[in-house]
Amino acid sequence: xxxxxxxxxxxxxxxxGLLSEIExxxxxxxxxxxxxxxxxxxxxxxxxxxxxxxxxxxYLLPPKETLLKFSLGGAIQVEPSIDATPRVILGVHPYxxxxxxxxxxxxxxxxxxxxxxxxxxxxxxxxxxxxNPSPNAFCPSMGTDTTETGFDLLLTDIGEQYVVAIGxxxxxxxxxxxxxxxxxxxxxxxxxxxxxEEALAKYKLSIxxxxxxxxxxxxxxxDHPLWEELAAKCLSCGSCTMVCPTCVCFDVQDDxxxxxxxxxxxxxxxxxxxxxxxxxxxxxxxREDCTSRLRHRxxxxxxxxxxxxxxxxxxxxxxxxxxxxxxxxxxxxxxxRLKEGS
Amino acid sequence: xxxxxxxxxxxxxxxxxxxxxTERERLFELKLRNGDELxxxxxxxxxxxxxxxxxxxxxxxxxxxxxxxFEIGVRTVGNVTNxxxxxxxxxxxxxxxxxxxxxPLDRLKGQDVLIVAGGIGLVPLxxxxxxxxxxxxxxxxxxxxxxxxxxxxxxxxxELALWRQSKDMEYLETVDRGDENWKGNAGVIxxxxxxxxxxxxxxxxxxxxxxxxxxxxxxxxxxxxxxxxQLLLSLERRMKCGVGKCGHCQINNVYVCQxxxxxxxxxxxxxxxxx
Lengths: 342, 275
Hints:
The complex is a heterodimer of chains A (342) and B (275).
Chain A: E1 2-7, H1 11-21, E2 23-30, E3 33-38, E4 64-71, E5 77-80, E6 87-92, H2 94-108, H3 114-121, E7 123-128, H4 139-142, E8 153-157, E9 161-166, H5 169-178, E10 182-183, H6 186-200, H7 214-220, H8 225-233, H9 239-242, E11 250-256, E12 262-269, H10 290-309, H11 319-323, H12 331-341
Parallel strand pairs in A: 2-6, 6-7, 7-8
Antiparallel strand pairs in A: 1-9, 1-10, 2-3, 4-5, 4-12, 8-9, 11-12
Helix pairs in contact in A: 1-5, 7-10, 8-10
Chain B: E1 11-20, E2 25-32, E3 45-50, E4 54-59, E5 70-75, H1 79-86, E6 92-99, H2 105-108, E7 112-118, H3 122-134, E8 142-148, H4 157-165, E9 170-175, E10 185-186, E11 203-208, H5 211-223, E12 231-234, E13 250-251, E14 254-255, H6 256-259, E15 262-264, H7 265-268
């Protein structure tokens, strides 16, 4: 991997240079919380944040997305619809980069999803190492506090400068074009490592099992009473899935305009925690009770996705812990409980 | 497939014939607008669009040996199926697919085939039955068991009449509750099992019906000595995409639309959520 260094003084002109040629979304502060949004200038950008409310997933798999447009007046006409606006996502934390890598695996697998793939191809990821993790985060337990892959550029704050890891040619070109940088020295890289270690020490939560143990830990505990205990308090509201960076399930519906001729087919985020998720038209519901839904979510994250895509479905961001209305969505507590009981 | 081609874009098809099967089910014969064959295998499914209403996964009922068009048999249960029933000949619908693995024809060739159809489970199985009849020399015995709740709920009456007379197959039927005109067997489908003998080592059972039927029929098949990996079941699940993305059809780590909908009982017995 190649590393460059850019001073904090020079950094704004890099961002403004990007803004001159492409849409840039970055992290902004809003009422004490953080969220991704389009930025107009460097001044709006926040690079030192703990976690955003919603992951950058929303730019790759929008909450609601048109798949087809059709017209029903006379001969039926149907056109695919793909919005792949070129865009830089600036300031993505490593755990969210890992989640995007998982999404890439899901949507490129066997039947490539053109809507996702086109958008992904037109998206530049500029990551930033997290300096001040959220109190709910447990990234080190999942091996996602840092990353060597999945980004075009990755910044690490080393005081007056950023070390920039170069992850792709596209990233390197943008950096060359818009930033004044110098090659990183051994000393810079040592500082980068020290900064990452400093952040590592700030994480408050950890799982007592090694990440490799998780799939088997779940398999051994399919009938553990924990699932029923958690389900007894679960509201089946789907909040945990709405904030999850690796939840990719969707529903598909049609919508007709009032003229009854123009219409669209769209997909929108769905949640396996909602009661009707596995219900078929005849009324049969294959995951009717909350226990089976809650267990399914844990198994999907900690076992099924690994089997299918080679990557675990949890990146330790802790958003579900913060979003859960019943205060039960806590992978750390769940895995620790299973580990203690095993 | 090119990555730039949308996997969600349906082909257009014309409804060339529709026929009432029962009070709740209709048969629809569809022809792709581009003149192509659907190119399916028995046991596969398609996603059918009624534009403006939505899309639903539906079993293909015709055999691929029937060229030029294909058929689906549809019960009115939801928005899309109700809208389909309102369509008339000449209407345009969308078709994506065929999807899923279908019945393993290669494994069935040269073997005895025992078909167990419960209610509208006959819709996808009709595709296989007609395929076997059209390639009769490739298969051993063909035994078809069909159970409906009442005589009025029997579908494909013309074909049933032919099957009763056919020398190419052994056809047994029952209804849960007969009426004054019903002279045949009465009782659930498992009551047909004492009525025939099989050579279990070369018999494959292909079972499609309502979820409740499976565990009882599986027990009967095992009683007759059919090995678990020769019991084939087709499973119904909610499917929004058909291409392994939307997550709705998952049974534990299995995507029914990708690895299924046809599974052997050996594959299913360790999947907690399967049946």
